[in-house]
Amino acid sequence: MSWITKTFSSSIGRKIIMAVTGLFLCTFLVVHLVGNLQLFKADNGAAFNAYSEFMGHNPLIRTMEIVLVLGFGFHIYEGLVLAAKNRAARGNQRYVSDHIEQNSSWHSRSMALLGSIVLFFLIVHLYNFFGSLRFTDVPRDANGNEDAYALVLAAFKNPFYVLLYVIGQVALLYHLLHGFSSAFQTLGLTHRKYTPAIKFIGYGFSIIVCAAFAAMPVYFFFFK
Amino acid sequence: MFPDSKIPEGPLAEKWDKHKFNVKLVNPANKRKYDVIVVGTGLAGASAAASLAELGYNVKAFTYHDSPRRAHSIAAQGGINAAKNYQNDGDSVYRLFYDTIKGGDYRAREANVYRLAQVSVNIIDQCVAQGVPFAREYGGLLANRSFGGAQVSRTFYARGQTGQQLLLGAYSALSRQVAYGKVKLYTRSEMLDLVVVDGQARGIITRNLITGEIEQHAAHAVVLATGGYGNVFYLSTNAKYCNATAAWRAHKKGAYFANPCFTQIHPTCIPVSGDYQSKLTLMSESLRNDGRVWVPASKETAERLRAGQIRVADIPEDERDYFLERKYPAFGNLVPRDVASRNAKMMCDEGRGVGSSGLAVYLDFADVIKRNGASWVSQKYGNLFDMYAKITGENPYEQPMRIYPAVHYTMGGLWVDYNLQTTIPGLYATGECNFSDHGANRLGASALMQGLADGYFVIPYTIGDYLAQTAPKPVTTDHPAFKEAEAEVNARVKKLMSINGTRTPADFHKALGHIMWEYCGMARTAEGLQHAKREIQKLRKEFWTDLKLSGTDQEMNQMLESAGRVADFLELGELMVDDAYNRNESCGGHFREEYQTPEGEALRDDENYTYVAAWQFVGENQPEILNKEELKFENVKLTQRSYK
Amino acid sequence: MAGSNPNAKPMNLTLKVWRQRNRNTEGRIVDYQVQDISPDMSFLEMLDVLNEDLLRKGEEPVVFDHDCREGICGSCNLFINGRAHGPEPGTTTCQLHMRKFSDGDTITIEPWRSSAFPVNKDLSVDRSAFDRIIQAGGYISVNTGGTPDANEIPVPKEIADRAFEAATCIACGACVASCKNSSAMLFVSAKVSQLALLPQGHVERKSRVENMVAQMDKEGFGACSNIGSCAAECPVGISLENIAILNREFLSAKATSNNLA
């Protein structure tokens, strides 16, 4: 085994992968959110469709898409490996009486569960939009762009999707509330001066991003 | 004829250097052909094991703990002395030597103590290089404090956890040698006997505390670093497992036991709260710098206080007796440990003790809190106050602490010569296990110094002198002496398991502790000691006919472990009583009521007792033979202490 | 006899204690009753009472590790009512006192549970994995003698204090016991940061962290997921900051050391 594989198969190495991919996925969230905010523009989806068209065909974006898939892939794979290893480390005999809730927060202990919910959401989400846009013929709008807006409109009239999307965002919120600052801790990026700020930004980031994403299905369901 | 103490000739300051030159050296290529057993992994043991392994010897290190780092050295709070004179306040090797000799009430060897003071400076260098995080000044240099009434600031410390940090330093050095394969570590292994082959120490017998297996281990030399025997009193500041078994077994195999009656009682401990009490907790004596010690002036007030009819706050100032300030106006609350302890006992004997048991005196911080504020006190003593509150459930900021003396350290131990070799060739004793450096009383912050001096800087030289005269041939456990010793240990274990009586090891241990504390504790009398001797003999008989154990010896059995240790304490206790009876004087930690000044102070008899009492075992239930090593003082003048 | 507080009433308690013959057998919870427990007793003294009772009845006492009983040796290690060292923060089992409990309480007592800490018997576990991690590099390689004068290496007070705080770890294993991942990161990080902070430790800084982490993984401890249970339950208050330092040391060592293995 070379030093690289050894480094990244160690417990800390795996955590570093989690942290780096996690933070990378946070940047993806920002890009994704900024684009999607155009859904709220009162132009019947013209701007959103243009943006969607651009995202679907720009070579740089298409390249980054591969990186993004890798980011997700590593984050999910390492997350599952770590969860399994950590479970094994505890051993077969569990505590008869365990009050871990008295010394730590529920969401910090439930990253694998929250991550799994987010993953389920992600699969449905990809099926709803990415799949349709990439692999089927979608009608075009007045500007000749694929009418992604119509897909959104249709999907978010379905109360089950709306509910699932909101749950997905709540899970993501709790995942990020721990994950954001945890990534900095894992990378050793802590300092008495700056760590409180990182924690604050992490909370703000998680709440704003997840609330904004959750607002979209709700908005379309009730107001469109 | 007393064995030669091997003190080198020449001026005091040159003895050690000369001796280092005169000892024989083992050829570097031959060192790996010698095996050394080190029993105990506290400061003295871990430092010796690591240093010997670094030199190239093959070391086997034994501890009954699950890890070497658990040894009781870890609990030392105050600090470690060294004659560095970093504070430019007049310290020197000679001053540290002088203070230690005087503090020991002139019952220690000059040459040993001088060497201790000499190597003290190397200890600090060594520990800092290992990464021991001593307290520092803002400029980055090491901080010092004055400790235990010393007039210079020579104590190095790591907050209130100096013992822990020093032990972890020695443990890290030991761990490094384990990683190199030069030390083989045996944890949860208790030494139950010494193996002597042709008059030379050649191995030990151990019991594996997990499996119960009895094992034989051979080596060219054996170092005992097994600590003190304070737990003979049942209640002491020692850890629960601290015991005398290794040293006592060695004694019964021929090693003399020196000055067993010299025990140190520490004045500032948290008092006993009930019969269930399992150990006593020490609080740093630095508390006496600002706390005032008192009891109610009258017995009646004390009685009403104990019955809960009045509260402390109800006692007016003029009904409080600040007895140390009253009796010792010059030193006040800062009198030495033995004086403070004895006076607390006197107050309680007069019926003026406090707490529900009546066995406590107050240590009051009200004045200093009024003067400097609670936050000042908290900054200086916060951790001690917290500890007190945790244990007693009382808030020492609001009501005075209750304190009482407790057994803390034993100055006596296996007799060793200048090389730290016992009277059995090839058997060495280091640290609290030996008797060598503290005389009749140990100064604060000197125990850590001695443990590390012995392990890092003395034994690595002196053991070579012995090994160089031993053929570098492999030693094995083939000799019949090993089988014999193993059979003895086995028989003893089986015997303990088979008595099937009614009383537990703790029952006997508590009973012994009670006898020792009453008659061989802070104040002793000839009559009391004779009574104690009879009581111990009686108790010992009962032990061997009425002990109750359960389970088997082929598994983890903590009661069996305890029973073996109590059995040895029951023998050692009697020797302590004999020694105290023999020593018709008061000195240091040994106070005989018959020998005191009209003011009630200790009265030494330098003419007749300036000697080390080294006891020789001759056979079961036979009186031990007293051997006397005369102490010669060529450099210091013997004076009587006065704290008036 | 109650000690400091004449009004303290003795308590009767039900104990649910983990009993296990040795590491190869199954264990189970056994119920015991203890009577007349003084609130001034320490938790271990309460267990002493139970054990004396059991022995008198000819039964086998409960094995548990303990020694100094003043919170510094790190021997005691009981999981009490679902918490490492019990309910009182910043306290080892031996310093936990019965006044924290009430008459009639049921108390569940278990050993540390981690695959790296196999049970010896009853409540005693084997923590030698910690020793092996230290042996892998938790030291500064200096032989006895030949060291420079102690004041030749000035250390800023703030750094010395932080190193000291990390160095106060007592290796009790509460961090591992309370971590849902059985991670030993708090223990390892305490030693790594102590020696990384001090200038004396810089020489072997890279190899130390590489070797100690490799040994930690080999022992079967889990990975840290920054939950914080360890620091919350640590009786001596070792901070999570140390884990960040460990991560940093590891990353920079792996990125820059010449070690290709």
From TrEMBL, chain A:
Keywords: Membrane, Transmembrane, Transmembrane helix. SUPFAM superfamilies: Fumarate reductase respiratory complex transmembrane subunits. The keyword Transmembrane applies. The chain crosses the membrane at residues 16-40, 60-84, 111-130, 160-180, 200-222. This is Fumarate reductase.
UniProtKB/TrEMBL annotation, chain B:
NCBIfam families: PRK07573.1, sdhA_Bsu. Keywords: Flavoprotein, Oxidoreductase. Residues 35-448 form the FAD-dependent oxidoreductase 2 FAD-binding domain. This is Succinate dehydrogenase flavoprotein subunit. SUPFAM superfamilies: FAD/NAD(P)-binding domain (SSF51905), Succinate dehydrogenase/fumarate reductase flavoprotein C-terminal domain (SSF46977), Succinate dehydrogenase/fumarate reductase flavoprotein, catalytic domain (SSF56425). Residues 509-643 form the Fumarate reductase/succinate dehydrogenase flavoprotein-like C-terminal domain. The gene is sdhA. Its cofactor is FAD.
